[in-house]
Amino acid sequence: MYALWEHEPTIEADDMFFSIKQARNGGITEQLIGSLISATDVEDGDIAFGDNEINYLKVKNFDGRKIESARDKDIIEIVLEAKDSYGNITQKDYIHHIYRYSGQGENQSLWKD
Predict the structure, then answer these.
(1) Are 19 and 99 in contact (CB under 8 A)?
(2) Could you tell me if 77 and 16 are in contact, meaning their C-beta atoms sit under 8 angstroms apart?
(3) What gap in Å lies between CA 62 and CA 79, rounded to an integer?
(4) What is the C-alpha separation between 109 and 12, in angstroms, rounded?
(5) Residue 50 contacts by C-beta under 8 Å, 6 or more apart in sequence?
């Protein structure tokens, strides 16, 4: 007798806050979002961002034009999806907020909740 565990992957992502300047300049990319999220699975371990050979972690509805046309205080919803090697799929709604930011320096245009 044996047990076969087929746990769903877990997606880790916090709401993010981006500057309006970063949104309008095309600085909020699918790759940037991918670098800020992660997924793990009991059987597969860490799932890398992208479409991998046996699993994936991806942004389902990324729309760069919508982000670039964002206005101050916009909220843009994105759906993240992870699939493990057993075919189990998990989705998580992810929100990023677009704000006018007047901090010092370009590197401070992005910060976590």
Answers:
(1) yes
(2) no
(3) 8
(4) 22
(5) 34, 56, 57, 58
9 by DSSP, 3-state: which?
A: coil
| 19-49 pLDDT per residue, tens | 999 999 999 999 999 999 999 999 999 999 9
Q: Distance between CA atoms of 59 and 81, rounded to whole angstroms?
A: 6
Burial label, 52 (beta-carbon count in 10 A; 0-12, 13-18, 19+)? middle
CA distance 35 to 31: 6
Tell me which residue of 101, 83, 81 sits closest to 33, measured CA to CA.
Answer: 81
Q: What phi, psi does 66 have (nearest 5°)? A: -65, -40
Please report the pLDDT score of residue 102 as a whole number. Answer: 53
Q: How confident is the model at residue 2 (pLDDT cuts 50, 70, 90)?
A: low
CA 60 to chain centre: 9
Type of residue numbered 17: F
Burial class (CB in 10 A: 0-12, 13-18, 19+), 37: buried
